[in-house]
UniProtKB/TrEMBL annotation:
Pfam families: Cupin_2 (PF07883). It comes from Adhaeribacter radiodurans. This is Cupin domain-containing protein. It comes from the Bacteria. SUPFAM superfamilies: RmlC-like cupins.
Length: 205
C-alpha cells in the first residue's frame, strides 16, 4: 500500500487536482484518499503552499484592460449559464453603423455601473475567431500591439483620439477605425463623458 501511495503522489494527479484540471471522478478519488492517508494530505498541503509562494513571488498588477477583459469573460459565461442566447453581432467594417448594434446597445443590462474601473467591458458575442464587446473608456488606455488579431472600433458616444504608430486620429459617434497589425497604439478619451465603443477583435486567418 505504501508503494501505491508513493506512486499516486508521484503521478502528478495531486498538482492537477489543485489546479482544477481533474475530472469529477478523479476529484472524488483524491478527496477519499486524502481523508484516509496522512501522506496524501501532507503532500496536498505542501503542493498548495509551493503554488501560493510561486504566485506571490511572480505576482504582477494586471493592466486595466486585461483585468476588465477577464471580468467581462466571467460575466459573459455566467450569463450564458443562466440561459442568455448566444448571438453573433455583425462584423465591423467601414460601412458599419451604430444602429447595426442597437439590439445589444439598447439592452437594459448594457449600462456603465457607478464607480466602475477606467475600462468597463460587456461581451456581446464570442467565437474562437471573433470577439465583440461594448466598451466604456473613461481614461487613456495602455499601449498595445496586435499581431494575431485585428482590433476594430465603432464609436457610439463621446470622443477620443487614437494614436497608432506616428499617426493620430480624432473620432466621434459613428466613426470606424481598424488598428493596423504590428502597430503600437493608445486611446485618449477627449470627451467629458466616457467614450463608448463597439469593439471587435478578429483573428488573422
Amino acid at each position: 500500500m505504501k508503494d501505491h501511495i508513493t506512486e499516486y503522489i508521484e503521478s502528478g494527479i495531486l498538482e492537477l487536482y489543485l489546479m482544477g484540471l481533474t475530472s469529477e471522478a478523479e476529484n472524488e478519488e483524491v478527496e477519499q484518499l486524502a481523508a484516509s492517508h496522512l501522506a496524501i494530505r501532507q503532500e496536498l498541503d505542501s503542493i498548495q503552499n509551493t503554488m501560493e509562494q510561486y504566485a506571490t513571488a511572480h505576482a504582477v498588477t494586471p493592466r486595466p484592460l486585461m483585468k476588465s477583459l477577464f471580468v467581462a469573460t466571467v460575466d459573459y459565461m455566467q450569463r450564458l449559464e443562466k440561459g442568455e442566447t448566444v448571438t453573433h453581432p455583425p462584423l465591423l467594417n467601414n460601412n458599419s453603423h451604430v444602429q447595426d448594434y442597437a439590439a445589444w446597445l439598447n439592452r437594459e443590462d448594457m449600462v456603465l455601473p457607478a464607480n466602475s474601473d477606467s475600462v468597463y467591458i460587456k461581451l456581446i458575442g464570442y467565437t474562437p475567431a471573433i470577439t465583440t464587446a461594448i466598451v466604456w473608456l473613461q481614461d487613456n488606455t495602455d499601449n498595445e500591439v496586435h499581431d494575431k488579431e485585428y482590433e476594430r472600433f465603432l464609436i457610439v458616444e463621446g470622443t477620443c483620439t487614437i494614436t497608432a504608430g506616428e499617426d493620430s486620429y480624432t473620432f466621434g459617434p459613428g466613426d470606424y477605425y481598424e488598428v493596423p497589425l504590428y502597430t503600437s497604439h493608445v486611446i485618449q478619451v477627449t470627451s467629458a463623458q466616457p467614450c463608448k465603443v463597439v469593439l471587435q477583435r478578429v483573428a488573422v486567418e
